[in-house]
Amino acid sequence: MPHSTKVNPKRVLRAARKTTRRQDYSSSTKRALLDNATTLFTDHGYAGTSLDEVVAAARVTKGAFYHHFPSKLALFEAVFDRVQGSTTAQVEKAIEASKDPWERAQIGLEKFLEVCREPRFRRICIQEGPVALGHERWREAEKASTLGIVQRTVDALLADLGGGENLNEAFGIVFYGSIKSASEYVADAEDPNAASEEVQAAIGAILAGMRLLPTIDAPNEESVSEA
């Protein structure tokens, strides 16, 4: 009969506590790095922020930094994704306040432009993102964050109008491009509040015009070939 080893519950509990403490410390270290890097990147930009400044502000060692991030670029990318994710969550939460698709579109626009006026989002996601990540990577990340909300909003507007089912994707891309350009316009403006009001008026007029349409008809193959 094989010899059975008796498990000491106290020893198991002590090991579990040690593991939990290590996990908590690792999590708090990463959070401290992200929090302080966000502040520094916002204040000084990517090129103007050194790793020494980040680890000093977070009160960790460089060894602890490299345990979580292989480079300053990887840290910036994590900060960028974090800020983008927060923005998406804020907009989605805001539009949940209404069931009317037109009102949801207006609420979503207002909330997004509000975020665009925040120094953190302006500096990290719009101004520093293309420089640090490269335009292609930045465009992919920004599109992944924003296009989904825009497309769902547009789908609801077209469904309310009726017709135009084949134009959903085209409308989504057009409105996404408008929102993207608007965010850059607001972020780079000397007076972001005034620029935001201008954008809301412009896109609001477009939405009002759409709402007056009896329906939206996609071009059929015959009309396209005749043209």
The dominant shape is elongated
Give the CATH level 1 class of the largest domain: Mainly Alpha
If helices are DSSP runs of H or I spanning 4 or more residues, what is the number of helices?
Answer: 10
State the helicity in percent bands.
over 70%
Query: Mind telling me the C-alpha Rg?
Result: 24 Å
Strand content: under 5%
- Could you tell me how far the N terminus lies from the C terminus, measured between alpha carbons in angstroms? 89 Å
Query: Could you give a short account of the major beta sheet?
Result: none
Uncertain ranges: none
* Overall CATH architecture of the largest domain: Orthogonal Bundle
CATH topology (fold) name of the largest domain: Tetracycline Repressor, domain 2
Could you spell the SSE succession in H and E letters?
HHHHHHHHHH
Structure description:
- This protein is mainly α and about 230 residues long.
- About 80% of the residues lie in helices and about 0% in strands.
- The chain contains 10 helices and no strands.
- It has helices at about 10-45, 50-60, 60-70, 70-95, 100-115, 120-135, 135-160, 170-190, 190-210, 220-225.
- α1 (about 10-45) crosses α6.
- The longest helix has about 35 residues, at about 10-45.
- The protein is elongated.
- The model has no long low-confidence stretch (mean pLDDT about 85).
Task: Set down the secondary structure blueprint.
Layout: H1 9-44, H2 51-58, H3 62-68, H4 72-95, H5 101-116, H6 119-133, H7 135-161, H8 168-188, H9 192-212, H10 221-226
Helix pairs in contact: 1-2, 1-4, 1-6, 4-5, 4-6, 4-7, 5-7, 5-8, 5-9, 6-7, 6-8, 7-8, 8-9
